[in-house]
Amino acid sequence: MTPATLLFSAMIAVSYFLPWIDAPMFFSGGPKDLFANINPNMIDLKKLSDAPPEVFLFLLFFLSFPVAGFTALSSLFGSCSRSLAILTGGIPLGLAAYIVIQSASNMPKFKFPTSMEGIGDYVGLGIVFYFLGASALILLAMIDPGKKTATPPG
Question: pTM of whole model > 0.85?
Answer without folding.
Answer: no
